[in-house]
């Protein structure tokens, strides 16, 4: 899904086109998920926040003022719900990072299937290593990059809505964070 | 939409000193690292398939005929915490037009009040499927079991209209 299609897809979904809705889910759910993950909620809380965001989006579908910015609407709604969870501190359980590394999804994405082949073992190792280094970045960098690496890549407007940071600061922060990550990888001899 | 990449240029010089200016080569390498990281996220931290399915099914929740009652007060966000109260009830207020719905959620149940007072049949939604049914009496009061875990909404059928509260987590 191209970001420029979002407005038209929202309109089609309003008009009753279930396939358009599905395309919106395909294109925007990785963004919603990345916002949840950026805020380090427990799995249970994260799943509920994700659902709340989509239920609200469905509910507001025909009433969203700028349909072409539906991604930002979803990102901002998700962020808002994440902050509520964090505010009710009793619900806050930080994600156990090693567990994330061990988690294997039952549904194999094409990227995951790559890891199945034996010759890809080295690549698999590299992916895990890269992810490990990413997880040890400072909180701000980890948050920003987690949202930026949603697939398909979000627009800066969406990243801004997802994290409550100014659009103009995303570019410079991104460069700093990627430079820092690369420095870590170089230090570990991985680059 | 990466229309503000140029904003990176000026700040870089001061961040890392003159020997580490951002160059075109850096930008290319950074993009490669970002792409690799994006692939790693798709492998190690993808959207759970179950959640993707739930989002697809959520399409059934779009209802152009119902009015949305907006959340205008949430004790979780708007209330000043009371010292010594460990687990205060969650107070929610929804508004649409002339109708106000006050809801209180505790581990023991759900209590609510419609204003102006009026009868209504109420459904406690927890997703696209049918939920528990409650009734508001002629004074607009209703009680029920605690909503199931996860997001919930109330669909209220008053005399002449259908109102749905904004989805939220109890």
UniProtKB/TrEMBL annotation, chain A:
<dbReference type="InterPro" id="IPR013325">
    <property type="entry name" value="RNA_pol_sigma_r2"/>
</dbReference>
<feature type="region of interest" description="Disordered">
    <location>
        <begin position="96"/>
        <end position="117"/>
    </location>
</feature>
<keyword id="KW-0804">Transcription</keyword>
<dbReference type="GO" id="GO:0003677">
    <property type="term" value="F:DNA binding"/>
</dbReference>
<keyword id="KW-0238">DNA-binding</keyword>
<dbReference type="InterPro" id="IPR039425">
    <property type="entry name" value="RNA_pol_sigma-70-like"/>
</dbReference>
<dbReference type="InterPro" id="IPR014284">
    <property type="entry name" value="RNA_pol_sigma-70_dom"/>
</dbReference>
<feature type="domain" description="RNA polymerase sigma-70 region 2">
    <location>
        <begin position="24"/>
        <end position="91"/>
    </location>
</feature>
<keyword id="KW-0805">Transcription regulation</keyword>
<comment type="similarity">
    <text>Belongs to the sigma-70 factor family. ECF subfamily.</text>
</comment>
<dbReference type="InterPro" id="IPR013324">
    <property type="entry name" value="RNA_pol_sigma_r3/r4-like"/>
</dbReference>
<dbReference type="Pfam" id="PF04542">
    <property type="entry name" value="Sigma70_r2"/>
</dbReference>
<dbReference type="InterPro" id="IPR007627">
    <property type="entry name" value="RNA_pol_sigma70_r2"/>
</dbReference>
<dbReference type="GO" id="GO:0006352">
    <property type="term" value="P:DNA-templated transcription initiation"/>
</dbReference>
<keyword id="KW-0731">Sigma factor</keyword>
<dbReference type="GO" id="GO:0016987">
    <property type="term" value="F:sigma factor activity"/>
</dbReference>
<protein>
    <submittedName>
        <fullName>Sigma-70 family RNA polymerase sigma factor</fullName>
    </submittedName>
</protein>
<dbReference type="InterPro" id="IPR036388">
    <property type="entry name" value="WH-like_DNA-bd_sf"/>
</dbReference>
UniProtKB/TrEMBL annotation, chain B:
<feature type="compositionally biased region" description="Basic and acidic residues">
    <location>
        <begin position="18"/>
        <end position="35"/>
    </location>
</feature>
<feature type="region of interest" description="Disordered">
    <location>
        <begin position="1"/>
        <end position="35"/>
    </location>
</feature>
<protein>
    <recommendedName>
        <fullName>Carboxypeptidase regulatory-like domain-containing protein</fullName>
    </recommendedName>
</protein>
<feature type="compositionally biased region" description="Acidic residues">
    <location>
        <begin position="1"/>
        <end position="17"/>
    </location>
</feature>
């Amino acid at each position: 899904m191209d970001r420029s299609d979002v407005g038209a897809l929202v309109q089609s979904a309003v008009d009753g086109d279930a396939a358009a809705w599905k395309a919106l889910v395909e294109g925007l759910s990785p963004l919603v998920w990345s916002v949840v993950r950026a805020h380090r909620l427990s799995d249970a809380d994260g799943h509920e926040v994700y659902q709340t965001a989509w239920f609200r989006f469905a509910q507001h579908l025909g009433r969203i003022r700028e349909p072409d910015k539906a991604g930002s609407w979803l990102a901002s709604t998700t962020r808002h719900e994440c902050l509520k969870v964090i505010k009710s501190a009793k619900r806050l359980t930080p994600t156990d990072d090693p567990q994330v590394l061990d988690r294997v999804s039952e549904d194999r994405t094409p990227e995951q299937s790559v890891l199945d082949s034996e010759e890809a073992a080295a690549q698999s190792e590299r992916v895990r290593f890269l992810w490990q280094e990413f997880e040890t970045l400072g909180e701000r960098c980890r948050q920003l990059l987690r949202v930026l690496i949603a697939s398909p890549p979000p627009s800066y407007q969406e990243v801004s809505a997802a994290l409550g940071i100014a659009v103009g600061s995303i570019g410079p922060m991104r460069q700093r964070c990627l430079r820092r990550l690369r420095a870590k990888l170089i230090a570990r001899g991985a680059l | 939409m990466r229309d503000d990449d140029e904003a990176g240029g000026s700040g870089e010089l001061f961040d890392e000193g003159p020997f580490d200016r951002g160059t075109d080569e850096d930008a290319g390498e950074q993009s490669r690292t970002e792409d690799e990281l994006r692939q790693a996220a798709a492998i190690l931290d993808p959207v759970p398939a179950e959640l993707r399915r739930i989002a697809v099914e959520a399409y059934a929740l779009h209802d152009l005929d119902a009015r949305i009652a907006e959340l205008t007060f949430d004790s979780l966000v708007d209330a000043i915490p009371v010292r010594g109260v460990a687990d205060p009830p969650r107070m929610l207020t929804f508004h649409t037009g002339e109708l106000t719905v006050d809801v209180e959620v505790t581990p023991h149940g759900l209590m609510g009040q419609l204003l102006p007072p009026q009868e209504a049949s109420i459904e406690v939604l927890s997703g696209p499927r049918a939920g528990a049914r409650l009734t508001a009496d002629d004074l607009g009061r209703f009680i029920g079991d605690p909503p199931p875990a996860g997001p919930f909404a109330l669909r209220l059928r008053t005399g002449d209209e259908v109102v749905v509260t904004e989805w939220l987590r109890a």
